[in-house]
Amino acid sequence: MMTTRVSPPTGTTPPQRWRDTLLLLGLLVLVLAGLAGLAAATGWQETRDQLLRLGPLQMALLLGLSLVNYAMRGLRWHLFARRVGLPPDLVRDMRHYLGGFLMSVTPGRVGELVRVRWIRRETGLTLERTAPLFLMDRAGDLVAMALILAGALALSTSGIAGAVPLAALALAAAAIATNSRLLTALITRTYRVVGRWHRLFGRLRGMARTLAHFSHSGVLAGAVALGLVGWLAEGYAFYLLLAWLGADTSVATAMAIFVFATLAGGLTGAPGGLGGAEATMIALLTLEGLPPETSIAATAVIRVTTLWFAIGIGAAIFPVAERLSKRKMHAVENR
Q1: Is residue 49 part of a domain?
Q2: What confidence tier does 5 reach under pLDDT thresholds 50, 70, 90?
Q3: Which of 79, 104, 121, 198 is the most buried (most CB within 10 A)?
Q4: Which parts pass through the membrane (predicted)?
């Protein structure tokens, strides 16, 4: 019986995972220490009283709105997956997308490329064909968040210094990263300057050309719509949280603060925006006139019900996705 040779899958190696885990734990300790220090300076009792305002039903609603975000973005991943030629399988695509959340705390979230590894194992599609999915997913989030931030700023009576340039930067980055012709030209020009690593640049050009599959206006419109619904759900969750904690903040202002802090945290390059997002959120809430204990409590809760909830979902699904992908890979090898 002939066997089909399968190239070693790409992805995060075990030593890299250990390094990422240690980095995550170190950043988490620093963030927790910072929040604890602020709570101690403000008064433990005051912060505790704010947290006790939230009951099980309220926490369930916050988590439910986060699930809406994850579901919408998972559907967007499914939409993109169809464009690169993957057989239609919503369950498979949602498993890959949600399982990849475990790796969202790697620097720059590059660990989420594990989704590409699973796809390669299960379908045999090449890296050049599927890697652009990762780029389109990131770009989809940037576009949705930039549009929400711009709209929220227009409706809010409060301004955020640097918010407009940040929204413009996010849109520009998304436009450049998803422009097939522009990226292909940039890669070709870079290769001519470097004059080496022919195979690497050849693969990069192949990936850039694959982006043309996503240029259909209907696909882009659907992707933006799904991203908007998802991120609006989490922004609204932040508004509800502030209201439950007694803050008199408008929906537009709450959404602007949430999205701006999330984008600002991402710019730091830290895993999951840890540290940067929390510091930005607390600072903006304080500038809005909220007492420190409310700002600290709101920031801690929203990060638990968004970032850490997503990591928890990823931790539950990751082993399943890994096991199924290996099983299907072995089935291909033994044909």
Answers
A1: no
A2: very low
A3: 121
A4: 51-72, 142-161, 167-191, 211-232, 238-261, 273-290, 296-321
- By the 10 Å C-beta count (0-12 exposed, 13-18 middle, 19+ buried), 63 is classed as middle
Q: Which amino acid is residue 165, in one-letter code?
A: P
More confident residue, 166 or 239: 239
The total number of structural domains in the chain stands at 1
Segment 146-184, tens digit of pLDDT? 999 999 998 887 778 778 888 888 888 888 877 778 888
Q: What is the rounded CA–CA span in Å between residue 277 and residue 300?
A: 11
Which residue shows structure tokens 């409590």?
297
Question: Which has the higher per-residue pLDDT, 190 or 257?
Answer: 257
Closest CA to 174 of 203, 145, 207, 209: 145
Q: Tell me if the pTM is above 0.85.
A: no
Residue 207 lies in a domain: yes
Q: Find the distance separating the first CA and the last CA of the chain, reported in whole Å.
A: 8
CA distances from 181 to 84, 152, 211 (A): 17, 33, 9
Residue 18 located in a structural domain: no
**What secondary structure letter does DSSP report for 304?**
I
Note whether residue 116 is domain-resident.
yes
Q: Which domain holds residue 168?
A: 54-333
DSSP letters for 70-122: HHHHHHHHHHHHHHTTPPP-HHHHHHHHHHGGGGGGSGGGGGGGHHHHHHHHH
The whole-angstrom separation of Cα 232 and Cα 235 is 5
Nearest to 67 by CA among 230, 254, 261: 230
Q: To which residue do tokens 């990762």 refer? A: 134
